[in-house]
Amino acid sequence: MSYIPPVKDLMFCIEHLSFWDQVSAMNVYSSHDLEDISAALESYSRFCQEQVAPLNHIGDALGAQFDNGQVSMPTGDVRTYAQFVEMGWQALVHPVEHGGMGFPRAAGAAGVEMLNAADMSFGLCPLLTDGAIEALLLTGSDAQKATYLEPLIAGRWSGTMNLTEPQAGSDLGRVSTKATRREDGSYGISGTKIFITYGAHDLTENIIHLVLARTPDAPAGPKGLSLFIVPQRLVNADGTLGAENTVNCVSIEHKLGVRASPTAVLEYKDATGFLIGTENHGLAYMFVMMNAARFSVGVQGIATAERAYQRALAYARGRVQSRPVNGFSKDAVAIIEHPDVRRMLLRMRSLIEGGRAIAAATAGLLDLAHHQEDPELSALAEFMVPLVKGFCSERAVEVASLGVQIHGGMGFIEETGAAQHYRDARILPIYEGTTAIQANDLLGRKVMRDGGKAARDFAARIAETEAELAEGDETSQAIGAALTEARVAFETALNWLLDKSRNDIDAAFAGSVPFLMLAGTLAAGWNLGKGALVAQKCLKAGQDTVFMTQKTATALFFAQHMLPECRTEMTRILHGSDSLLDADFPEY
Amino acid sequence: MSYIPPVKDLMFCIEHLSFWDQVSAMNVYSSHDLEDISAALESYSRFCQEQVAPLNHIGDALGAQFDNGQVSMPTGDVRTYAQFVEMGWQALVHPVEHGGMGFPRAAGAAGVEMLNAADMSFGLCPLLTDGAIEALLLTGSDAQKATYLEPLIAGRWSGTMNLTEPQAGSDLGRVSTKATRREDGSYGISGTKIFITYGAHDLTENIIHLVLARTPDAPAGPKGLSLFIVPQRLVNADGTLGAENTVNCVSIEHKLGVRASPTAVLEYKDATGFLIGTENHGLAYMFVMMNAARFSVGVQGIATAERAYQRALAYARGRVQSRPVNGFSKDAVAIIEHPDVRRMLLRMRSLIEGGRAIAAATAGLLDLAHHQEDPELSALAEFMVPLVKGFCSERAVEVASLGVQIHGGMGFIEETGAAQHYRDARILPIYEGTTAIQANDLLGRKVMRDGGKAARDFAARIAETEAELAEGDETSQAIGAALTEARVAFETALNWLLDKSRNDIDAAFAGSVPFLMLAGTLAAGWNLGKGALVAQKCLKAGQDTVFMTQKTATALFFAQHMLPECRTEMTRILHGSDSLLDADFPEY
Q1: Which of A12, B379, B410, B451 is the most exposed place for a label (fewest CB within 10 A)?
Q2: What is the pLDDT of residues B166-184, one digit of tens each?
Q3: What pLDDT sits at residue A525?
Q4: How far apart are the C-alpha atoms of A433 and A441, rounded to whole Å?
Q5: pLDDT digits over A408-462, tens only?
Q6: Average pLDDT of A108-132?
Q7: Residue B289's pLDDT is what?
Q8: Is A294 exposed, middle or buried (0-12, 13-18, 19+ CB in 10 A)?
Q9: CB A13 within 8 Å of CB A38
């Protein structure tokens, strides 16, 4: 079973949904046109398809291996990672002045999707390195940038995020790892970190750990955390590698999925660390890295869903079983002919294309927000990030589960491969902040804090798309009408939540995840609707008929099958908080 | 992590939701009162909790082992199965005249739930034996009953269903295993069967395979199938065991879940088989077994969901993390205090209690239909079976997934145990007929065939419950109002489907699974509503306040959070068929 990167749809999203006119007009991206992006993605897609995708199943079977403090990766991963470095793919979105290719974020998201669809375990290493690069770019000193950025952007070194401790998961205020200032300005880091993705491995010559820790006199809670660079091997003044740091891998986890990615317990024993920025501001710096990683985890959701979809589609085309329900044939047909198999495939496809569309849109907004410092766009971008993470990760689990279902009994057999996506996808709504954490972020920071301003801007933009759809043909109008109903449900929920935020905060947060799923589903429907407008225009001009017809079909399916969920979520928010808060959980 | 069988709720369902007044009035069950059932379930619950539940995790790790044609089970399973036989639990629902205990089906469902919650892999063996017993009771000759029933009901022998072949999954008409009549009246059975649960194992001294095969002159398709008894070891005239039959286990599957239950490929090489009933009627006989098994698979869904829920609840009580969202405390609290964790727990609980309620109702209806030969009740019972299978199995996957989510990162670690339920549950919407097969059965056989009569009877009974709820307090009225909206959605969808069944059968079947989920969710809400009426009565009388308060709370949560999905499913049915049927799946 091969994986074929959906480059055409990825480029469609970049060109039509990522605010490309504005993004490409910025100085920082003026040297790249769509043809450059397309050429880069085509080249990267070949690497993903030919070199990475074959690692997926064997890597799952072999897993990362731990022996006496050392973690060894499957040999295929080691070989292919070396090629990844040689071809320089880690550099895709990073600044040219530090050795990067300087592509915009929407192109980067396309790259993340292709690599992670090819092999999510493999893709996790560059994903975390990207986050470390982003954090260093924004918060590192010039000397730190000079030391670490070039080898990270080259992929020769990898990066990690060290947040979690046994007592500190979602609640980072409970981090207790200690950082003691030394006379030379460095810090001695001591403590135990768990769930460290790629915390130990043999793909790169060095690993740069970014570690949250607490100085002795720091205040308690989240405002006493500082962020440190702790290289696995210390770096000499000339950039060469020095002694091994005192960071030890104690064990790796036995996991449900992404088994070829090592999840390490790391023990820091007075390890040498270097402060980033100033003391006690570590959480804010870490959020830079975390936001980048959250966005990318959403994209991983699209990725694993796409792989599950391609596998299910191939099976549905090849598996002949049962006569058609309409009785028009006495012969059994390929199961793709059966209405319910089509329903499942279209549900998968529309959730994937919807997720891809909001990822592209958000990537564009993040670029515009980052480089233009436009407060409205910044707010909208920030509003969208938890939607990308929350919606795409939750939907990935659903899509992977449908992928198993389409295979029938074969789906439950590990050798088929469908089950691996179901196992792999399950981490996505958990790591880099659970869905509830995303929802709290959305409701608390992105909605309540500005009194719903960004959320209303979001709704207003959707209303504009509705107006355009209303001018179109019957299909466009149907999509527009479904979008209107969903958007009104969103606004109704929004008003209720803002009202409750003033006098009944528990009731508001009882609806946080329903609100996240409402907003995410609406955002996907909106961007699919925008895509349908483009497709209608192309179809009128006779351009790309097969592809554009299916873009429209997907948007219509999503409007008819998925957007109605928005009203259900609204009902849950408006009428479901009392039963939720009042219930008790007595012993049996 | 232990499992505590929810005997109180199981008894509540039997007493109040399984039509107990009518069931207990039947001669066949007149010797058992509720106290007998309660005593039996209490005793069985201790066995499940103490002997079976500890096997669950270790069995998953060890798995069934295949070596040179022999399958060996984990030693704990062998030891505990022997106790199961000694205590005679296989006999629970089977007729007294064949050595059974003669309890009604609702008690049997409670037993199936407890055993499968304790260990679904373990529970599968008795589940299939139950199906074989049921098929023999209804279709076997007196001689066959005399030979096979007693040891099966004692649990000394186990039963299997042999339907699937590589080319014949959902489409049994494609079965090609051959049955050649011999001079002595027996048949020589030759062919390969796959996905045979407990097709080979070392728990019992004999295995009775019920095998679908085709005689040489049989018509093609499903009307040419005959059903055969093929004992793994032949049985002498005096009931002692004779020679090994020529049925060989070629391999067992490497599966996503239920790993301690062997799934065998069986090769029949002119094996000796005995015809059940008459030739070419095999599929009808097999449906007897399949219907029993389908109902039980629905109950397995409740079971694995309950186990996942208990694990998540225990974790949510013990895990302290983050301050309350309302800011009323500076200290971190157990995560069960956080609104979204409560939401997930209540969603799990309400789906479980809703599923349990419809299983009890359906069990009662099946008993009434079976023994009283009432056509209206028979039709309603038949209408409910695909709901129990479809709704409870699909919801089990969802509940198990929420169970992982509540554990956060720990949920992804296999040692925690939550992931096992997520893996185990995934087979439920697939085996014994996928969800689409259940939906086709519901729409084609249970709705279209009688012009919607049974479906309207179902709706009318729900309307009666609504009327009773409208007489109650505010909570009852809220439940009733949500039920009305859901029931109207059901009737609207029903009318549309019946209309389409006359002129656009593809459009009707495009909505088959949405209709199944609509009806299943409605049925659960209905039975939870009936339970709430009972609970309100008890609360007024000051009886069992803690338990009855939570029965009401669960029903209210379901009404507010789950019943609104019915309208979404209706929208999918009415407005979603064109996009589904028209879409195409071009190459990338």
Answers
A1: B451
A2: 999 989 999 999 999 999 9
A3: 98
A4: 10
A5: 999 999 999 999 999 999 999 999 999 999 999 999 999 999 999 999 999 999 9
A6: 97
A7: 81
A8: buried
A9: no
Task: For residue range B472-482, list pLDDT tens digits in order.
Answer: 999 999 999 99
Average pLDDT of the segment spanning A5-27: 97
Task: Name the β-bridge partners of B163.
Answer: none
Please check whether residue A470 is in contact with residue A533, taking contact to mean a CB–CB distance below 8 angstroms: no
CB count in 10 Å sphere of residue B126: 26
Q: Two tokens at B322?
A: 């983050």
In this structure, are residues B570 and B497 in contact, taking their beta carbons and an 8 Å threshold? Answer: no
How many helices and strands, by DSSP H and E, does chain A display? 20, 11
Q: Answer yes or no: is pLDDT of B45 > 70.
A: yes
Q: Which of A113, A134, A353, A432 is catalytic?
A: A432
pTM above 0.95, yes or no: yes
Q: 């001009």: which residue's tokens? A: A541
Estimate to the nearest angstrom the gap between the alpha carbon of A327 and the chain centroid. 44
Q: How far B349 CA lies from chain A's nearest CA (Å)?
A: 10
**Of chain A residues 393-412, which have a CB less than 8 A from chain B?**
397, 401, 404-405, 408-409, 411-412
pLDDT tens sequence across A200-218? 999 999 999 999 999 999 9
A286, A226 in Cβ contact below 8 A?
Answer: no
The top-level CATH class assigned to B157-280 is mainly beta
Question: What is the DSSP-derived secondary structure letter of residue A335?
Answer: G
Per the DSSP assignment, residues forming a β-bridge with B197 are B263
Q: Read off the pLDDT of each residue in B60-71 and give the average, rounded to a whole number.
A: 97
By DSSP bridging, strand A178-181 and strand A187-197 are antiparallel
Is B6–A557 a contact, with Cβ atoms under 8 angstroms apart? no
Spans of all domains in chain B = 7-154, 157-280, 287-578
The helix (run of H) or strand (run of E) holding residue A133 is: helix A120-139
* H or E stretch at A528: helix A512-540
The pLDDT of residue B1 = 65
Q: Which residues of B are catalytic?
A: 432
Kindly give, in sequence order, each residue whose CB lies less than 8 Å from that of residue B344, ignoring residues fewer than 6 positions away. B312, B402, B405, B406
What tokens does B574 get?
């009415």
- For A149, the 3-state DSSP assignment is helix
* A518 and A566 Cβ atoms separated by less than 8 Å: yes
Residue with tokens 């009994």: A409
- The answer to whether B7-154 and B287-578 have equal CATH topology is no
CATH architecture under which domain B7-154 falls: Orthogonal Bundle (1.10)
| From B164, B256, B412, residue closest to A419, measured CB to CB | B256
For B169, which of A408, A426, A577 is closest by C-beta distance?
A: A408
Which fold would CATH assign to domain B287-578?
Answer: Butyryl-CoA Dehydrogenase, subunit A; domain 3 (1.20.140)
Residue A1 has pLDDT above 70, yes or no: no
Q: Which residue has the tokens 């007929």?
A: B433
Interface of B with A in 234-253 (CB under 8 A): 253
As a whole number of angstroms, the distance between CA B260 and CA B72 comes to: 10
The DSSP line for B331-364 is: S--BGGGSHHHHHHHHHHHHHHHHHHHHHHHHHH
The string over A339-354, giving b where at least 16 C-beta atoms fall within 10 Å of a residue's C-beta and e elsewhere, is bbbbbbbbbbbbbbbb
